[in-house]
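EI: anyone free to look at a 623-residue chain?
SC: sure, send it
EI:
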Amino acid sequence: MQALERVLSWGGMKKDIAFLVVSAISLILSIFDLIPLPFDAAWVSIILCGVPILLEALIGLVTAFDIKADVLVSIALIASVMIGEDFAAGEIAFIMQLGALLEDLTVAKARAGIERLVQLTPRTARVIRGSAEKIVPAESVQVGDILRVLPGETVPVDGVIIAGQTSVNQAVITGESLPVDKKPGDEVSSGAVNQFGSFDMQAQKVGEDSSIQRMIRLVQSADAGKAKIVSLADRWATWIVVIALSAAALTWMITGQMIRAVTILVVFCPCALVLATPTAIMAAIGNATKHGFLVREGDALERLAGVKQFTFDKTGTLTYGNPQVVAVHSCLPGLSEQALYAYAASAEERSEHPLGRAVVGSYRARYGVAPGAAEAFHMLPGLGVEAIVSGKRVMAGNLDLMDQNHIPLEDTVSQAAAHYLEDGCTIIYLSLDGILAGILALADTLRPEAAETIAQIKSVGVTPVLLTGDHQQAAFHIAEQLAISHVYAGCRPEDKLNYIERTQQEGSPVCMIGDGINDAPALKKAHVGIAMGGIGSDIAIDAADIALVNDAIQELPHLLRLAKRMMRTIKCNLAFSMGLNFAAILLAMTGILNPVVGALVHNAGSVLVILNSAFLLKWRKTK
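SC: here you go
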C-alpha cells in the first residue's frame, strides 16, 4: 500500500497539469477521430487521469474503509469501460482530475513559521563565573547562573536583572510597541533584545522552560490541533454511492439493460459536486487578491464564513505601532510649549531610543524644521538622555530620572501626567538646569479607518474583541475610541492562545488578526488567522491562513462578506448539481440518455457550476 501512495505522490502538481493537458488532447482526438490510432485515444485520459482515482479509492477502502467521492467515480469508470464507452470513461476521469487540481491549487501550504521562530532562539550566552566571562551554548545554561547581556544582544534565558539598567525590546513575547525600561529586580524574557545598557542577570528558566521555547511549542501544538474541513463531496460520498448503486441495480433488474444501469452511474458521477467548492473558492480567492489579501490556505475562506468573533491585536493592527507626540505641557513661567518642545527635540536628536526618535520626528513633522544642535550628549540607559542645549542642561526621560536627580514634581504636572497615563500615553519628563520644565505625552496612532472597520464587522453579526499585550490604560483607551466592548490587556502569547482555544471550545469560532511574532501561536490556533503583511513579521505571516498585503484593514469587512457569499454560491452549486443528477437519473432509467449523452449532460452541469462560481471574481457588496 505504501508503494501505491508513492506512485500517487510522484511528481506533484506539475505532473497533474501535464497529465491533464495530454488527456484533453486525447479526448479531442477521440471525439473527432482526427488521427487514426489502433486504440481509442480516450484511453490516454483513462490511464493518466483514471488510474490515480482508482488507486486513491482502493487505498481509502483498504486502509480505513473510507468511502469518498472517488469510489463512485471508480465504479462509473469501470462500468463505462466494461460496456465499451471509452470516451465517457475518459471524460469522467478528466473532469474529476481537473476538479482535484483546482482543489490542490487552493490548499497549497507554506510552513516556514516554526523554522523562522527557531532561528530567533539565542545560540550562545555570556556566563560570569568568578571574575571570568565565558561564552557558552545557550542550552548549557543552568538555573542560578549569572549571565551578562550586552547592547544589541538577545536575552538567552528567562531571569531577573541583578545589576545594570537598560531598555529591552520584548515585542517577540508581548507585542508591546515600545522598549521597556529595566532595572535590578525586574524580570527579562528569552528572545527579548537588549537595546542600550549592558546588564547582569540570574537565570531562572532555561532550556525548554524559557519563553521563546514555550512559544515554539505553542505554535506547533496550535497547528497540530487545528481541524481541517472535509469537502462536502467526500462528506456525502457514502450516501451518493448507496443511492447510485441502488438505482443502477434496480434499473438493471427491472429493465434487464446494462447500458441503462451504467448510464445512471455515469450521470450520478459527482463531477459538478466536486467542482462546486474549489471553483467557488478559487474565484473568491481571486476577488480577495484584488483587494490586497493573500489567501495561503485553501479552506480559509470556507472557515472564515463561520466565525463569530474577530479578535484584534492592537499595536500594528488597529494602530500604526509608531508613537507620536500628542501633547506638550510646560510648567515654567515664560517657557512656551513650542520652546519646551524644541529643547526636548534637540536633546533627543542623537538618541537611539524609539521614544527619542519619535520626539524628533514629531517635531520635524509639526514645525517643518530640524531641532537645534546639542552638546555633551549622554545616553542614560533605562532613564533617558542628558545634553546641553543653548547653554542649558536638559534632561529628558522617565520619572526615575527626575527622582535620581532630586527634581520634584509640581501637583499640576503630576495631575497632567496622570491624565495622559489614563489615556494610555507614555510620558517624557523634562528639566532645565535642574528645574522641572514640563512633560511630553506620546501615544500610538490609531488608524483612521479602524473605527469604520469595526462598525462594519459588527454589522455583519460578528463580535470584535481586543486582545493585546499592551497595558490596560492603552488598551481600554483604544477600545473606547473604537466602541469595542470586549477587551483583554496584558496578554502574553499563551494568554491569547488560551482565550481563543477556550472560546472555540464554547462553540464560537474565532478569526485572529495580528502582526507580531507574539501573535503567531494565536494565529495558528484560531479558526482563521489573518496577518498584517505590510508591517507584520515573517513569522506571523507564515503562521496565518491569510495575509493582508497592504495593511488596509478597511477591506476586512469585504473579506468577511465575500466568504459568506462564497458559501452561498457553493450551496447553490451543490443544490443545482444534485438536482440535475437526479433528473438525469430519471431520464437514464427510461432509456432516453445513453452513457455518452449522459456524460455530456452532467458535464454541462459542471460548466454551469464553474460559470456561477466565476461571478464571485468581481463581486462586492454595494453600499
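EI: The chain has a mean pLDDT of 80.
SC: 👍
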